[in-house]
Amino acid sequence: DKTVYLKDYRPTDFIIETVDLIFELGAEMTTVGSEIRLSRRPGSPADAPLTLDGDSLELAGLALDGKPLAPERYEAAADGLTVHGLPESGSFTLTVKTRINPSANTQLLGLYRTSGLFSTQCEAEGFRRITYFYDRPDVLAVYTVTIIADKESCPLLLSNGNLIEERNLEDGRHMAKWHDPFPKPSYLFALVAGDLAMIEDQFTTMSGRAVTLRIYVEHGKADRADYAMDSLKRAMRWDEERFGREYDLDIFMIVAVSDFNMGAMENKGLNIFNDRLILADPETATDDDYLRIEAVVAHEYFHNWTGNRITCRDWFQLSLKEGLTVYREHEFTADQRTRPVVRVDEVKFLRANQFPEDGGPLAHPVRPTQYLEIDNFYTTTVYEKGSEVSRMIATLLGTDNFRRGLDLFFERHDGGAVTIEDYLKCFEDATGRDLSHFALWYHQAGTPVISVQSAYDEAASTLSLTLQQKTPPTPGQKEKKPLHIPLRVGLIGPNGDGMEPSAVSGGERTEDVLHLTEAEQTFVFKGIGARPAISVNRDFSAPVKVNFEQSRDDRMAIARFETDLVARWDAINGLALQALVEATAAVRAGTPISVDPALAEALIETAGDETLEPAFRALALTLPSELDIGRELGRDIDPDAIHAARRTVFGSLAREGAERFRQLVDALSGDTEFSPNADSAGRRALRNTALAYLASATDEPGAARAAYDAATNMTDMIAALRILAHQFPDAEETAAVLDDFRHRFAGEPLVLDKWFGAQATIPGEEALERVKRLMQDEAFDALNPNRVRALVGAFASSNPTGFNRPDGAGYRFFADFILDADKRNPTLTARLMTVMRSFEALEVGRQAKARTELERIAGHETLSRNLRDIIDRMLK
Ligand code: HT7
Ligand code: ZN
């Protein structure tokens, strides 16, 4: 059993001070020389051997202080190196030589070569695929890296830190030497070699130091890197202003690569990005792409302090860097754009991704206590719930105190590899507040459900609010304790104004935050002159589900008058969700669907409310998706019934509001100059949302076809294409537009991903054959993670009717794909597999068919550890 347990943590027996690496790069054979300066850790046993990690390595030489080691002094295997009889005291040098094949590395972990480019991905355990090392985050060393390669094919040789030497060698090769003065763990090591274009800029830090900024991209794409560069500079300034964090090296580089397992990687001074998160211009990128680029560029940059300068003691502490960095990223985005709109997107993401994870077989605490494969713990729980936990700390302490705690964290732990306890202690020490109860958020999995009951006493002018919290059991954690939950609650009076109580008893209240600390608590609000509508979890102050049987009138009052726009959106969305759930029940019962006219009125009124930002109006107008409806139902899900219900409700709203939608489309279609800013993006979002309704109301493809032809940017173009593909899949116009798009963007893989995605998600049982056909398109590449996610991933995760065909053919296809792809790239397949984690919520027929396929996968003996871990937990 290879399970790793938190309780088993212990420091290494040896300390690594410096590492000198020499790479002689060859496409099929790269040799890696590693000179490690080591000393025995004081207090560790004098006879303890040195045990270094390895993965798929071949040892080509081993020496101690320059002398080759006799074979009886060490054991070398593909997965590790053990050296005996090392000095009891003083430093010594171990020289290790390994040989690797970067071209054969389809896992994209370690050093790999794709499209002529050498690049690395070392987090979490990729460095051990390069050389034998203590490949763990608590071993920090100073790295010097020499890269030798053919000058013509690899004019560019990059690694972390500062360039200290560069020269030509014989036989057409050249070398570059990089030195990173900041001690770092191996997961932050990076190397890139190849031939790329570059844009350069300058940033002057708050203390006046000049930093060179460079972004490297494929030749011919340099003009698409400007927005990433602009985002980087804004992020650097923001981190100085908001958190006092200044950049520390003289150069900061980003390299965009086209084969990458995740979004991006924060390697010290040399971030490596999936190119879809760097490249953007109006003709090829959507507003969502721009938003993601800004967010991820900032996220990776913010890691320089939260992750790199202060890192994790072990991988159980992953949320220490990821949760906190997501929180910093969210705050940055909120400051760059419109805060409530950004927050609504976060809430939608959390509910769509983290809540199902927390409520399913893969649930785990923000700080797990065991893992089989750490790659599988880069989850929305560690990232997004982790971020929510930091947000709650900020809510509990207030913004200034949060900053004080974080300042102390940077001061106390700079250069360290620390734990979540160390993090929390800084907030306690800086503010005097006891966070021991709050800390449970890190250790207890599952989404708490808060049940609310209210009683208004007119004679006493009091409102009693009884809040009960319950967290459902999760794997390995049956019993749950009450958490400390900061819940923002607002009261809306009969005239729509906010009501402020004269006093509140029953528990702590700070501003509008109720501190729920017990399983059940009754808060009594005094001085409430009339029965209010109660708005619970404003701004989504806590990542919880709220069960509150409110009258429709109260929900309408919140939808109309709440000043907190997040809660206002939530009320509108909740009303729509309820209508869709009822419509689904009607479809299954064979009874007619009736759409509440008050809901239609509220939506149409909001859509036209000029006092609200277009982006917010677009959010309000967007009906919950079929997946949202399924999640709301939670069990016995019939995707076909949901689809029919949503289509009917959508059509009915479309007809009801046709006039308004036409007005919006006309009024918002005039923008000619493209700007990626939040205001322009919001206008496009509202216009394209209205266009989708309009297309449904008229039930003909003409308006969308005209919008496609008139589009001057990718946002409008792909929106029109999606409307055509999803609402009129068989129309001539749709075929023509799909064909036009395919040819127009023939040489643009990232743009064709949108084309793959739009078609993979066309509802109905023909989707499977369509996806199979698209896999034969020459633009599809089963080795490239972006292509796989765009086509197979989108089909499995976002096409409920197509993927969940009642005959189980969708599951069969997916299982075959997974089994095949697992041989090449386990990180990718394990992640892809998680889209089926909620299969037990399906109706029994589909559930059985899904289980058969999952069991078929589980029955294979040669699964990767990544996939084995996921599939076994899903079937437990
Ligand atoms: N810290 C980075 C995580 C990451 C990663 C993890 C496993 C396998 C491949 C990976 N690529 C990047 C990205 C981040 O969260 O900032
Ligand atoms: Zn991160």
Automatic annotation (TrEMBL):
Which residue intervals define the domain Aminopeptidase N-like N-terminal in the entry? 90-188
Q: Which GO terms describe its molecular function?
A: alanyl aminopeptidase activity; metallopeptidase activity; zinc ion binding
Q: Which InterPro entries match?
A: Aminopeptidase_N-like_N, Aminopeptidase_N-like_N_sf, PepN_Ig-like_sf, Peptidase_M1, Peptidase_M1_dom, Peptidase_M1_pepN, Peptidase_M1_pepN_C, Peptidase_M1_pepN_C_sf
- Source domain of life is Bacteria
Q: SUPFAM superfamilies attached here?
A: Leukotriene A4 hydrolase N-terminal domain, Metalloproteases ('zincins'), catalytic domain
The record, for Gene3D superfamilies, names: 2.60.40.1840, 3.30.2010.30, Neutral Protease Domain 2, Peptidase M1, alanyl aminopeptidase, C-terminal domain, tricorn interacting facor f3 domain
* CDD domains, A to Z: M1_APN (cd09600)
| All residue ranges annotated as the Peptidase M1 alanyl aminopeptidase C-terminal domain in the record | 553-876
EC number of this enzyme? 3.4.11.2
Q: Which residues form the Peptidase M1 membrane alanine aminopeptidase domain?
A: 227-438
Which PANTHER family does the UniProt entry name for this protein?
A: PUROMYCIN-SENSITIVE AMINOPEPTIDASE
Task: Write out the function statement from the record.
Answer: Aminopeptidase N is involved in the degradation of intracellular peptides generated by protein breakdown during normal growth as well as in response to nutrient starvation.
Q: What is this protein called?
A: Aminopeptidase N
Q: Which organism is it from?
A: Martelella endophytica
